[in-house]
Specification:
The chain is an alpha/beta fold. It folds into two domains: 286 residues, Aminopeptidase, CATH 3.40.630.10; 166 residues, Glucose Oxidase, domain 1, CATH 3.50.30. It contains 14 helices and 17 strands.
């Protein structure tokens, strides 16, 4: 005890980080509203969407923003049309020397992303584990028979289809079962309605099913596995042909991005973009569960709260020189689709956006935490962000560990369209803390407003992102890059 007391006397006192309690209270009010059961989990295409967009639109209008769609037919709300596709029909038929082979219904499953895909009487070529893609001449017009080996991925199947295979039939010779595949694929897949329908055809067959097809031939599954393991393996035809058919059922969903704008004081044709996704999973559980709604308090009512309070602060004082756009995206949780829709039909040319700052899942870090850059090293923004951090006396974490999450947020969709987009937040500076959230409340009904919700770091995010928006909206600090020559 003496030693402890001595250390306490000798150690300098550490001042607690200064907190903006008024700002934290504003953030909490937004999060509490948007994550309440009244919003039904903010699922696109529902009354929860309407309530969410009405709330945000009123907040932004009252703050002093104007519509940023630059479309008189769709003020504030930019339409996004989605299509949800779920498996509907599956049929697999096999022939050997013209004789039909009967398989139990639970032996094979055929899937497609199109409304209907059909392959008739196609030869089957065994491609082993798919580590080496055969020449197109070996795949064209044929069904590629692939060993699964317990690998739950789609890279090999996609490579074979791209390489010319008319379909891929995967043998579930590892730990995966047909029930596993069916359970995972029975959920709807989503896409923008403007996207062209895929024509891919992918089948799965059980070990017992393939053994039954090969019975009476010179080939066995064990023999195929041994051949695939040989260093001199080459693809080989199987004494079978396949007719595979799959259909999907479609549902159309009309949803919206919300776009606001703070016109610049001295516009130079360039702009800063701040964005956060508004959507979540809606009703995500079934009775007898007591909690049926995924409210998405941290993911991402917190990001919307930060985005709104940045807008409030930017409208105060001197207006930034450049235009600043504010974007609340739909359908992030089902594939970053709202961000893709924004990039496909932007309210301004994408090359006019000098910097985009995404805000996602921010209410997790205490006040005074350092900032991480998700997307570090992937854009030309790093040096200016570092300069702004130095000017604001903000600490940036070293390294790029947070980039592990770069593909899981709207900034990634914008990066695919050559928009310099990053996330700058305290939330991603401690990956252990973030991973604990991911392992706990993330995408579950328990992501709701709770006593003690951590808003210190979120308030710090508002302060620094406001400064970053002003920094990049200043042509003196960030001169406009020369536009690329027209093609």
């Amino acid at each position: 005890m003496v030693a402890f007391a001595t250390c306490a006397l000798l150690s300098p006192a550490v001042a607690a980080p200064k907190r903006d309690k008024a700002l934290e209270a504003q953030l909490l009010a937004h999060i509490t509203e948007l994550a309440s059961d009244a919003y039904e989990g903010r699922e696109p295409g529902t009354e929860g969407e309407s309530k969410t967009l009405r709330y945000l639109g009123k907040q932004w209008f009252d703050i002093g923003l104007e519509s940023g769609t630059n479309d008189p037919l769709h003020s504030w709300f930019a339409p996004v049309k989605l299509v949800a596709r779920e498996p509907y029909g599956s049929n697999a038929m096999f022939l050997r020397k013209g004789r039909r082979l009967i398989l139990p219904a639970d032996s094979a499953l055929v899937l497609t992303s199109a409304k209907r895909s059909l392959v008739e009487n196609a030869p089957i070529v065994f491609v082993g584990t798919g580590q080496v893609i055969p020449p197109r001449t070996d795949l064209a017009g044929r069904v590629a028979l692939l060993l699964d080996g317990g690998r739950d991925d789609s890279d090999r199947q996609n490579a074979l289809l791209k390489g010319g295979a008319t379909a891929v039939l995967t043998v579930l010779d590892g730990d995966r079962t047909l029930e596993n595949v069916s359970a995972r694929r029975e959920r709807s897949g989503y896409a923008l309605a403007s996207d062209s329908l895929g024509g891919d055809l992918e089948g799965f067959i059980t070990r017992a099913g393939l053994d039954r097809l090969l019975a009476g031939t010179s080939q066995t599954l064990a023999g195929l596995q041994a051949a695939a393991a040989a260093p001199d393996f080459v693809p080989r035809l199987i004494e079978l042909t396949a007719t595979l058919e799959a259909t999907t059922r479609e549902t159309r969903i009309n949803t919206h991005n919300l776009i606001g704008k703070l016109p610049g004081r001295k516009p130079d044709g360039k702009a800063v973009l701040l964005l956060a996704h508004w959507d979540h999973f809606g009703r995500c559980a079934e009775p007898p569960a007591e909690d049926l709604i995924c409210n998405g308090a941290i993911d991402n009512a917190s990001g919307l709260a930060v985005l709104t309070e940045i807008a409030r602060r930017l409208t105060r004082g001197i207006t930034p020189d450049r235009d600043v756009y504010f974007l609340a995206t739909t359908a992030e949780e089902i594939g970053l689709l709202g961000a893709h829709a924004f990039a496909d039909n932007p309210p301004l040319p994408l090359n006019q956006i000098v910097a985009a700052f995404n805000i996602d899942t921010v209410a997790v870090s205490p006040a005074g935490s350092p900032f991480a850059v998700v997307g570090k090293g992937m854009t030309g923004l790093d040096a200016q962000i570092a300069a702004a951090a130095k000017a604001q006396k903000k600490k940036l974490v070293a390294g790029d560990e947070a980039n592990a999450f770069v593909r899981r947020q709207d900034g990634w969709a914008l990066l695919q369209h050559d928009v310099p987009a990053v996330m700058v937040s305290t939330a991603w500076s401690d990956m252990g803390r973030m991973e604990r959230f991911m392992d706990g409340d993330y995408h579950r009904p328990s992501d709701k407003v709770k006593p003690g919700i951590e808003l210190g770091g979120a308030a710090d995010d508002v302060t620094f992102l406001t400064a970053l928006a002003r920094w990049f909206a200043d042509p003196k600090k960030v001169p406009a890059p020369a536009d690329p020559p027209a093609k």
